[in-house]
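Milestone M4 deliverable, item 7.
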Amino acid sequence: MKKKIEEHYRKKHKRLVILLSNRAGGRQNAEDVVQNAFELAIRYRYSYNPNLQPIDVWFNSILNNALRKFKTEEKRMGMSVEYNEEMDEACPLLEWEDDMINLIKWEVSKKKVPMRQALYLYLFRGYKPREIVQIVDMSNAYVRTSVKEFKQAMQKKYGELVWT
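Output delivered:
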């Protein structure tokens, strides 16, 4: 997968920098955003599932999130931000029985692509919401809310599950 990302970098780097120049506030900023996006892509390469979407779509989500983060940090320059880690827990399902895992996988598979990918990363790969937003084009609040609603829907549909 790393080679696929490197190949994507060689093919698309210059074009992406040009495309982002206006949105990022100049060529140098665009270079930084594109470079950061490729670093994130390499870090989260195991989250890419070619069966869900092509690499361009997956990478564009990462790129858009890197640009959004860059713009947010640019606005907050010099300000400190406190972040409550309490709700930012990963949810690996390793201790669950195979039947329950298959049931949850089936329910996740019925969701649309961005939500399906976010739930998959959270439930089966153990990614935290703040890590998921760097991969999937969603806000942290939306990921958290969606996971909470998914868990509630599963409890309502199937009764008492592992989630409390």
